[in-house]
Amino acid sequence: MFKKILIANRGEIALRIIRTCREMGIPTVAVYSTADRESLHIRFADEAVCIGPAPSSTSYLNIPNIIAAAEITNADAIHPGYGFLAENAEFSRVCEENDIKLIGPSPEMINKMGDKVTAKETMIKAGVPTVPGSGGLLEDVKEGKGQAKKIGYPVILKATAGGGGKGMRIVKKESEFQGAWDSAKMEAGASFGNEGLYLEKFIEDPRHVEIQIIGDKYGKVCHLSERDCSIQRRHQKLVEETPSPVVDDALRNKMGEAAVKGGEAIKYEGAGTVEFLVDKKGDFYFMEMNTRIQVEHPITEQVTNFDLIKEQIKVAAGEKISGINYYPQLYSMECRINAEDPSKDFRPCPGKITSLNFPGGQGIRLDSHVYAGYTIPPNYDSMIAKLIVTAQSREECIVRMNRALDEFIIEGVKTTIPFHKKLMTDEIFNSGKFTTNFLESFDFSDL
Questions:
Q1: Structural domain of residue 174, as residue ranges?
Q2: Could you give the residue numbers annotated as active site?
Q3: What is the per-residue pLDDT across 234-255, written as a single tens digit (0 to 9) for each?
Q4: Which of 55, 232, 399, 410 has a Cα-to-Cα distance from 173 of 20 to 30 A?
């Protein structure tokens, strides 16, 4: 087992990793930027090292500084959390070169799954259902139009190095193709330094359902069932739940088997998530694979009684997984609490928290790094807390979430709490019959 783990991240995920390390008896090193010198993860880690100024490019994305911090503190492993360098092949390679174990995928694994075209080709070979598409990068507009005509409109153009909805454009007819191509290419280049685009059939009104997997160095992969992430805006998730309201036992088994098959095909090591689109008929299609821990991992932990961070660490240290697939025993839902104004198109609202009350009681889990008097910096992601509620049924979970949101008081900054409160009383949401397009028609005017 590792002697000391450096956490190359910030906020709630850094604190989450520290908690598991403490339970395992492993000392931790927190790294931080000058903007985060008052963050809780610094207070609870055994050691802390400042790695640069506020901009992430000079701190949390600064590979030489992070490696130097690991070396001066004698950390023999690094946990990257999610975001920042969690899926950066160069960072993984540098860790290897410096004899530091990255608690995450190898450079080869990241490259295989990080490029969406390569990932899709890999999954096709493994027999995992995929969305009909171009089968590779498009050379030019002419080829794109030809593929779109062959597949049938609507189609969606996607950046091969994409994420977070960047470099994606839906094309409903041929006359829109040129404009969509130009804007997607420009955005992809600006966001990822890679203008490569591919094309897929656009699945109308889908559900976004993902399967959590764990793999070890001995080639064994198991799954921990699904999470439904269909409540999202601009392809960014706001609410996640498990089990999914649209997944029955038969579909759960099929999706789980497909995810495990994909993981075994690439000899996946560590925690990962295989993401699918599920259409109205219950058919599912591989979308992408995230080779890291997910923001929404707590709901899986709650319904399976399984510590995913601990399993990541154990697998990275060379231990074998049980090889048993896990299925939901309870119901769990997560609301992402962001420092954003939902009435103004979710505009970020950094600033000082003047008053704070966290909810509590049966079935309530709160993952957060904020406290009364904490100043939310403008430099990073606006998520400040994850409210996770667990119950015996979806109906009971929604009632409990409503109660918890009423108790959750944050003053000094705008948050997404009013949006979540309204969502929990929405008739369509309560019915479970919504799709990824649900929030496009949601009324935000009275928030």
A1: 132-201
A2: 292
A3: 888 999 999 999 999 999 999 9
A4: 232
